Amino acid sequence: MSPHLVVLPRMFQLGPMKRDPRLQGLSSDHHQALVLARTLLEKQGPFSHIDPHELGHRFDVELEPHFLVEDKWLLPPLREAGLTALCDRFAKDHADLRRLISLARVGDADSAVSLGKRLHEHVRFEEREFFPACEERLSDEILSKVNQAAPHPTLHVKD
């Protein structure tokens, strides 16, 4: 096995999922989110694998832009489609993750571990429930806007 190959434990593996190409930009962000979650869950002592400032920076650069696109482009039309419970869970997850990072970035190691656990759970929820609902219920126009707004937009997607 290559020393650069990262094999995620079974609990972190999502399995093969077909995703609308216009959501693949957001979906691909989940790999780094799972790597960060695993790093936080593997800690031996307070921030032995990642210090609070690095964690805050990674959240700001890797996760917050992703959250903002979802909050702006996916959440409102899904609420309009009547998926209230799904949207409530989604919004609560984002609020909880933002609360945990605010504590972890000032050195609260327990919050960092909780962040890792919740981040892992949230990614699984998005891939298994939230994104399939988006694919089923959102218009081509909305999905195309998501693709353009995504922090890592999918290339070569024809609208």
Could you walk me through the main structural features you see in this protein, from its secondary elements to its overall organization?
- The chain is mostly helical and about 160 residues long.
- About 65% of the residues lie in helices and about 0% in strands.
- The protein has five helices and no strands.
- The protein has helices at about 25-40, 50-80, 85-105, 110-135, 140-150.
- Helix 2 packs antiparallel against helix 3.
- The longest helix is centred in the middle third of the chain and has 29 residues, at about 50-80.
- It is elongated.
- The termini are far apart.
- The model is unreliable at about 1-15 and about 155-159 (pLDDT under 50).
Fold topology:
Elements: H1 24-41, H2 52-80, H3 84-104, H4 109-137, H5 140-149
Helix pairs in contact: 1-2, 1-4, 2-3, 2-5, 3-4
